[in-house]
């Protein structure tokens, strides 16, 4: 039957310690992806809020928004959806000034595009987007397209045709994500249904809630990691905590039912990440120096402006000459650098 080597790929979800949740993707025992969430600080990126304008700043062409956090968020005119613009915009098509768009205490629906950091409040946008497994929904636009990362013209055309066949509501746009490549109409329709339901429930909450209010919480690290990293070549998803196991099964049941049976509860005494020797691999992720099999090594050093990567032949056996050795070490360093990054 040929000598195709099949890679064994698993997703491991370590959620048994309430203060930290970790999701790893392992291919043939090697760590490929790692997502960690420390529960002490709640993530707000992607959350959608109903906020109130606290200050209009003409000099910055921005407003400050109270969306319920300790520090007000920052909303630039560049991130304001045209649906907020005055009617005169329809005829002039010139972007209005912020002071002509918002007055103090006005309500606005915003999504966190950049979280708070040290002294700066969060950056906000009114161009809301909701990511499903295969599609991203963008309310307030009629655009529908395909992620730029899908470069094959034939595939792009095929996906656009499929999108046309789906019942797309007016004034809601969609983009097919890279994970949508090769998906059937049924799979895309199911995902469309899922994100539309999400958006409808957000819309329903807008009128009912006084500002500031949280309208939608971006999925926690577990569901987000599944959304970003799950692929059909994963043969097992192991979860070491009962409640999270149930949540993961529910998510698959709703979005990708044919893979639901891959989700299993891990009940061995030995910690999940230890069983797959991940603790040592995770430690190595933060080392500056990474050894290669040939005896060469790479050095990864992040600075404020960039991350520098240096490849050294080190103790690599000198082959027919310097060129040959350098080539072999570089060939080995390539995949390892990609994995480390």
Question: How would you describe what is shown here?
Answer:
By secondary structure, the chain is an alpha+beta fold. Strands 4, 5, 6, 7, 8 and 13 form a six-stranded antiparallel beta sheet that branches. A five-stranded mixed beta sheet has the order 3-2-1-14-15, sandwiched between helices. A four-stranded mixed beta sheet has the order 9-10-12-11, covered by helices on one side. It contains nine helices and 18 strands. The protein starts with 8 loop residues before the first strand and ends with a helix. The protein has helices at 88-92, 98-101, 153-165, 185-208, 221-229, 242-255, 272-275, 278-285, 322-340, and strands spanning 9-17, 20-27, 30-38, 48-57, 62-66, 73-76, 107-114, 123-125, 130-131, 135-139, 144-146, 172-176, 213-216, 234-239, 263-265, 289-291, 297-302, 307-312. Strand 2 (20-27) and strand 3 form a beta hairpin. The mean pLDDT is 87.
Topology (elements, then pairings):
Layout: E1 9-17, E2 20-27, E3 30-38, E4 48-57, E5 62-66, E6 73-76, H1 88-92, H2 98-101, E7 107-114, E8 123-125, E9 130-131, E10 135-139, E11 144-146, H3 153-165, E12 172-176, H4 185-208, E13 213-216, H5 221-229, E14 234-239, H6 242-255, E15 263-265, H7 272-275, H8 278-285, E16 289-291, E17 297-302, E18 307-312, H9 322-340
Parallel strand pairs: 1-14, 11-12, 14-15
Antiparallel strand pairs: 1-2, 2-3, 4-5, 4-7, 4-13, 5-6, 7-8, 9-10, 10-12, 16-17, 17-18
């Amino acid at each position: 039957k040929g000598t195709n080597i099949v890679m064994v790929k698993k997703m491991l979800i370590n959620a048994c310690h309430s203060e930290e949740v970790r999701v790893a993707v392992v291919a043939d025992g090697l760590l490929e992806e790692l997502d960690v969430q420390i529960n002490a600080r709640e993530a707000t990126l992607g959350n959608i809020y109903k906020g109130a304008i606290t200050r209009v700043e003409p000099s910055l062409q921005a407003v400050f928004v109270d969306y319920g956090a300790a520090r007000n968020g920052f909303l630039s005119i560049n991130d304001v959806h045209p649906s907020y613009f005055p009617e005169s915009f329809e005829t002039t098509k010139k972007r209005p000034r912020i002071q002509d768009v918002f007055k103090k205490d006005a309500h606005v629906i915003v999504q966190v595009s950049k979280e708070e950091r040290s002294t700066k409040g969060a950056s906000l946008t009114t161009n809301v987007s909701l990511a499903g497994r295969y599609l991203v929904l963008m309310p307030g636009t009629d655009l529908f397209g395909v992620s730029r990362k899908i470069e094959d013209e034939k595939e792009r055309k095929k996906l656009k045709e499929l999108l046309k066949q789906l019942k797309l509501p007016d004034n809601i746009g969609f983009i097919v994500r890279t994970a949508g490549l090769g998906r059937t109409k049924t799979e895309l329709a199911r995902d469309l249904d899922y994100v539309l339901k999400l958006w409808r429930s957000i819309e329903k909450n807008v009128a009912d809630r006084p500002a500031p209010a949280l309208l939608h919480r971006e999925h926690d690290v577990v569901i987000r990691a599944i959304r970003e990293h799950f692929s059909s070549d994963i043969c097992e998803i192991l979860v070491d905590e009962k409640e999270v196991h149930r949540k993961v099964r529910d998510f698959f049941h709703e979005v990708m039912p044919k893979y639901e049976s891959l989700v299993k509860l891990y009940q061995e005494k030995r910690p999940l990440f230890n069983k797959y020797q991940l603790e040592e691999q995770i430690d190595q992720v933060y080392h500056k120096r990474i050894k290669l099999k040939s005896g060469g090594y790479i050095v990864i050093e992040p600075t404020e402006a960039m991350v520098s990567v240096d490849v050294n032949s080190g103790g690599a056996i000198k082959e027919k000459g310097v060129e040959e050795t350098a080539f072999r070490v570089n060939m080995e360093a390539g995949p390892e650098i990609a994995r480390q990054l």
